[in-house]
Amino acid sequence: MDALEIARWQFGITTVYHFMMVPLTIGLGLVVAVMQTAWHRTGKTEYLRMTKFWGKLFLINFIMGVATGIVQEFQFGMAWSEYSRFVGDVFGAPLAMEALLAFFVESTFLGLWIFGWKLLRPGLHLTALWCAVIGSAVSAYFIIVANSWMQHPVGVTVVNGHPVMTDPWAVFTNNTALVAVPHTLLGALGVAGAFLLGISWYHLWQRRKDGIDTVGADGRVIPGQNPELPGRDRTDHRVWLRSLRIGAVVAMISFAGTSITGDIQGKLMFEQQPMKMAAAEAACHDGTSFSVLSVGDVGSKDCSNVAAVIEIPGLLSFLAKGDFTTNVKGVNSLQDQYKKAYGANVPNNPIYGDRAGQPVQYVPVMEVTYWGFRMMIGFGGLAALAAAVALYLTRKGTVPQARWLMRLAVIGILAPFGANAAGWIFTEMGRQPFVVAPNPAMAGSVDQVFMFTAAAVSPGVSAGEILTSLIVLTLIYAALMVVEVRLLWRYTRGGVASAMPELAEKHDGGEGTQSDDVLAFAY
């Protein structure tokens, strides 16, 4: 057992799991805020129902995200103490601002929104939600600033072998962060869009299956209602149709936005981390062609057994430089360049353990970078295509009766989750063997900053201890996954009435003014 590899697995598993909640929280929060704004401005009942139903699912996901995110900060000190010691003077600032400023704003105003129904004036209540949503976006900004500094260190001076922040403005306006922030936020909107589309499709299909909605001779929907069930009326039909179409539009806008910001990111990566992008394309040799499909052993470190089957001439140059003729360096050329700049062997330092003096492998795991890059784009494209098809199929006011289409729409919720996860895995794994990647602009400078991942793990923690925590955390996170999925599925199947107990009370002959409706919404 190797402590470094186990620690990397632990951080990878917990981070990817946590990040499943993050984009849905950010994206769905914004959508719910827009829905409540529409209700506040128009007074239409369907927007109130949409706000409460999607808000309920938003809260479930938010709480799970908080619970799983706490572990991340402890790992920096417990499993990666050498990393924390090395970058603490820089990395600590954005993390502290995220926790002490953004997260407290987010959680405080979200609490006001949860418990403020009928207690706050409508305008103040809406403002509380918008403050919480803006807080979540600012929180994401600070986290991405910290991560972007690891990808592209700027604004520091080396003092006694450690980077010290000397230019906070450079750190917080790092061009890597300024592109990654909108890319991440747009990716979050894609998750929210598919979430709305899949669940709304299920409810529209269920209404047709139950005979509530029918289709006329012209193919247009005839909304009905079931007086025996609370909330299953004509307003309910408008809730799901508008939610579906909002979700589809959001998903399409998200894909267009992530494509633009992703292209900018790609050009920055070619400048800042050329090996990462070369590995993502399996570009073993210098050239201009983009590999649509390569075969062979893409895990080969010298690319000796990799052959491009389908190539697009000039596209790699366009992705890198914006033209079609620039010769882009491949993996083999970059290996020599990296060895000359950062050393051919791991430094002879006890902190590296058995790796001290061994040759440095500057090529990341190409199976991960190559397929991760394609999965990121592929899943995002599938979600956008599904959204366009959904807009077309629902143009007459409902969804087809085919069960397989409904199941496909529900399963399609996972596509943007997969795109987000693949994108982050590609970003982090492609940086290896560095935990703090070097800034090429500082090559040869006394202020040059980089750190090998092998030096970042805590020296006082044994492989057995990390393995134990890995197993325990994985089991706990698996249990939390079961809890979240069951809660989401339970309230999803319950429809609007599951988030609005007052509908059931009205249905039973009451006035719908129960005293505990706020707590019922929250819990």
Task: Please summarize what this structure is.
This protein is mainly alpha-helical. Helices cover 65% and strands 6% of the residues.
Summary tags:
523 residues, mainly alpha, two-stranded antiparallel ribbon, 6% strand
User: Termini, distance in Å?
Assistant: 44 Å
Strand segment count: 8
Strand order of the largest sheet: 1-2
Radius of gyration: 25 Å
- Tell me the fraction of residues in β-strands, as a range: 5-15%
- Order of SSEs: HHHHEEHHEEHHEEHHHHHEEHHH
Largest sheet, strands/sense/barrel: 2 strands, antiparallel
Report the mean per-residue pLDDT as an integer.
Answer: 87
Membrane topology: Multi-pass membrane protein
Protein name: Cytochrome ubiquinol oxidase subunit I
Family: Belongs to the cytochrome ubiquinol oxidase subunit 1 family.
Subcellular location: Cell membrane
Describe the overall structure.
This protein is mainly alpha-helical. 65% of the residues lie in helices and 6% in strands. The chain has helices spanning 3-42, 45-78, 81-115, 122-151, 168-172, 175-209, 234-272, 274-280, 315-321, 331-342, 366-393, 403-411, 414-429, 463-494, 501-507, 517-522; strands at 156-159, 162-165, 214-215, 221-222, 290-296, 306-312, 434-436, 451-452. The strands form four sheets. The chain has a two-stranded antiparallel sheet. A two-stranded antiparallel sheet has the order 3-4. Strands 5-6 form a two-stranded antiparallel sheet. A hairpin with a 5-residue loop joins strand 3 and strand 4. Helix 1 crosses helix 13 (414-429). The longest helix has 40 residues, at 3-42. It is globular and about 75 Å long. It starts with a helix and ends with a helix. The mean pLDDT is 87.
